[in-house]
Amino acid sequence: MNNFFGFNKQQRNGLLVLSLISFSLLLVRIIYPYFITPGTIVIKNLPVVERKLDSAYENSQKQFQNNFSENKKALNLFVFDPNSVSFEQLLQLGFKEKTAKTLLKFRDKGFVFKEKKDMQKVYGISDYFLAQLEPYILIENKRAVDNKNSGKEKTVNAVAVKTSAKEKVELNSVDSLSLIELNGIGPSFAKRILKYRSILGGYVAIEQLKEVYGFNDELYQKVKNAFKIDASFVKKINLNTDDFKVINKHPYLSYELTKTIFDCRKKAAITPTSLKDIINDEPVYNKLLPYLQF
Fold this sequence. Notes:
The protein is mainly α. Among the domains are: 64-141, Orthogonal Bundle (DNA polymerase, domain 1), CATH 1.10.150; 168-233, DNA polymerase, domain 1 (Orthogonal Bundle), CATH 1.10.150; 237-293. 50% of the residues lie in helices and 3% in strands. The longest helix is centred in the N-terminal third of the chain and has 23 residues, at 9-31. The termini are far apart.
């Protein structure tokens, strides 16, 4: 009997005690939750967590407010002709003061709005705002009628054209509005001409217009006689003192050539003669020389 099921009496007693303990713990685990009353959570005592807006969220909110403001102004829109609308009327239509002045400046320089999409040429008019304005734009073609009734306007315009043809545009000081007046140069080319002028440091020859992106020979032949050059506006770079970024920014200097110049100037000052040997390309050297000082 002491060896029944392979356990002696002492081992059987131990197993019985262990089973009773396990059963008691299981019973406590099942019954205990019924004797617990959950406490009340006081939400008002919790700390307030502030939301920090990131830049993307702030920008989206600003864009929404701008669009909302423009849409609100659009409720007061009325039919107008951009060739005759007044400054006060532009403000009533929702134009910003600066944009309204730009439009009037266009007109003062002789620009005529022939179709609705010409409004895109006025800097400051967004696509959203133009979409609001478009149904209210009415361009009246009164010029032909006025010319029939009186030859004065035709005569004045002819004199103005003749006078402006004699006056050449200085390429290093001209603004975008004056460029747009030239036949063949629209807003896109005007922007490119000014941007390339900034990168170059100024034009030293009218032929450099051919280096402007998209400026083909046909357009160049059409407008070349309308320009003149004042080289005093040209900004020069010093190969011995200016930093790497300033020198490498010039379109006539590649990264490799700039690096070679910097390596050489560590040993000795760069001179026109030594630079000619460094570049080893006479056309490039001649184009670059007017922009340099040593």
